[in-house]
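Query structure, 279 tokens:
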């Protein structure tokens, strides 16, 4: 049981300069006894309202140095404070606020919400067990307008899809990875590096791009690049929900549409997933 969707904004001030973290937190606990379920005995139950208050107090006292560290702090608090807690799992996701710039100058207290992917993390721990930390990015929407195709696929009497060697590749990414033994990691730096790997593997070199023969190959290329550059990552999962675009037929309008106007296919949409780990 636990408390979901604990939302708050943490404001940190250094002189005139302000820093913000707006997060959503979920905390789930498993107790050493199921007596509240079997007997209606609530003597060991930590109320979910208390769970919410603990999260807010920890944000006030410790701040949020990184999403992962805040999740670790929450797990540590419940494990060290309540002997009846056998397991705790914490999920934290961040609202993507970025500092506003005016003529290249960073503003001291103004921010803009940029929907270029939502950062999240999870931390879970069993009593007398290791602390396990996951991190990730979701709702990251990417598109490239060429250097993508789909050819040579299996065909039978039900196949109507034509082969394409030049198409739009567009989709929404979910990416989640696990760390090994958590030491003094710079979680912010690692997250930014992995996000850069995702963008690089998707797009390719800026002057020419890189051809994608399938959504599956693109997903695997992202994971291979992350594992090659970020040694702290042990296992990585990527899910791509792709959006198809069809060329609009404008013959009845007396026009030739040479791949200039498209309409998105909202549903059904394709999806592919891959999980890759080290030996």
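Result returned for the query:
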């Amino acid at each position: 049981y636990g408390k979901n969707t604990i939302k708050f904004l943490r404001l940190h001030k250094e002189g005139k300069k302000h820093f913000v973290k707006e997060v959503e937190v979920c905390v789930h606990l498993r107790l050493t006894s199921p007596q509240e379920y079997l007997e209606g005995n609530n003597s060991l139950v930590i109320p979910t309202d208390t769970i919410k208050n603990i999260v807010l107090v920890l944000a006030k006292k410790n701040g949020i140095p990184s999403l992962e560290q805040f999740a670790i702090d929450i797990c540590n608090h419940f494990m060290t404070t309540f002997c009846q807690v056998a397991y705790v799992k914490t999920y934290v996701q961040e609202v993507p606020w970025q500092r506003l710039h005016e003529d290249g100058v960073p503003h001291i207290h103004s921010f803009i919400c940029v929907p270029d992917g939502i950062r999240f993390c999870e931390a879970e721990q069993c009593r007398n067990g290791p602390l396990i930390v996951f991190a990730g990015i979701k709702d990251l929407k990417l598109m490239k307008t060429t250097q993508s195709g789909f050819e040579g696929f299996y065909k039978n009497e039900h196949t109507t899809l034509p082969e394409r060697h030049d198409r739009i590749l567009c989709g929404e990414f979910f990416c989640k990875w696990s760390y090994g033994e958590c030491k003094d990691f710079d979680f912010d730096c690692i997250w930014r590096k992995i996000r850069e790997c995702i963008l690089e593997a998707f797009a390719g070199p800026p002057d020419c791009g890189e051809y994608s023969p399938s959504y599956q190959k693109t997903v695997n290329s992202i994971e291979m690049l992350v594992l090659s550059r970020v040694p702290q990552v042990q296992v990585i999962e990527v899910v791509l929900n792709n959006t198809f675009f069809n060329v609009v037929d404008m013959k009845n309008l007396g026009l030739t549409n040479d791949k200039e106007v498209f309409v998105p296919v909202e549903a059904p949409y394709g999806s592919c997933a891959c999980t890759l780990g080290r030996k």
